[in-house]
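Chapter review: from sequence to fold.
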Amino acid sequence: MGYFSKAKSITKSDTINPLPIWEFMNDTGSLGTFLAGSLVYVGGGGNVNVIPAGTASPQLSDGVLFSGLGAGDIVPVYVDYVLSTNTSATLLVAGRESSLG
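The token string follows.
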């Protein structure tokens, strides 16, 4: 993993909205909750419940819980959604690697 070329503070949500959170991917004028295979930085430690990138027809039941992440950790998978259910970590930031655009 390299450095993030783009970063955005995110809010965890149980709403699966397929519109991207990234302005450069979304010209609708309305941002969704789709992280489009982003990495997620954890600013305040805890658990993070995510739907991994590439999950077909994502549902809340597709969540994968990463427990005990510390401040400064990065969730170890590419992520399409961060769910609020069972997520206790705070100060979450979505990042795009420079190689991904």
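Two observations follow directly from the output. The chain has one domain: 4-97. The chain has no helices and six strands.
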